[in-house]
Amino acid sequence: MLAAAWLGPLPALAQHAFAAHMTMHVAVIAIAAPLLAFGLAGSGHDPAARWPAAFAPLPASVVELVVVWAWHAPALHHAARHAPSMRVLEQGSFLLAGLLVWVSAFGGPASRERAAAGVGGLLLTSMHMTLLGVLLAGASRALYAHAGAAPLFGLDVLQDQQLGGVLMLGVGGTVYLVGALVLLAGLLRARRSEGA
């Protein structure tokens, strides 16, 4: 997934198309990060098992919120779209923030409290991703400067931004919500087993 997002056509397209840039974001933070975290969780390389206090789900989700919203500030977003070094920094911080949230939620010592905190952290992340997606998709004007080339699929600049918002809303918000529901289902099953 990381190779497809970072080595394929998306980086070049992202200079002119907001939706391509958002596709890179979503691929990293909502697909690659959880897949990597699931591979690490419970293994001998699980950082949340080694340092559980450093991988608390709710603070991790706040860190991720700050990272995502900061990179969507117009000046940083523009720099990441047009300067390869800034794009590397942006994408790397998205990957680290995503890993932090997912490893914090699914890794570490198994306990009801940790799983409940994971539900809260993933729900908070789902909500802020959904909010950002709604803001981008529902905007009545373009929020970001573009390089002047036509965006993907013949869309105008505003439609391109709105498509990017829908991607953030539809994929970003949904994946984190599903993660929270998976943890919640595990908590409910454990409670039912104890009751039986």
Structure description:
Helix 7 (84-106) packs antiparallel against helix 8 and helix 8 (112-138) runs antiparallel to helix 9 (157-195). It is elongated, with a radius of gyration of 18 Å. It has 196 residues and is an all-alpha fold. The protein has 9 helices and no strands.
Q: Could you list the spans in which at least 5 consecutive residues all have pLDDT below 50?
A: none
Rg: 18 Å
Shape: elongated
Helical residues, percent: over 70%
Number of domains as seen in the coordinates:
1
Termini gap: 42 Å
Q: Give the beta-strand count.
A: 0
The average pLDDT score comes to 90
**Number of H/I helices:** 9
* Strand residue percentage: under 5%
Q: Biggest sheet: strands, sense, closure?
A: none
What structural class should be given to the helix and strand makeup? mainly alpha
Note the run of SSEs as H and E.
HHHHHHHHH
Protein name: Cytochrome c oxidase assembly protein
Transmembrane segments: 24-41, 53-72, 92-110, 122-144, 164-188
Subcellular location: Cell membrane
Main location: membrane
Write the layout of secondary structure elements.
Layout: H1 2-7, H2 10-14, H3 18-40, H4 47-50, H5 57-71, H6 74-82, H7 84-106, H8 112-138, H9 157-195
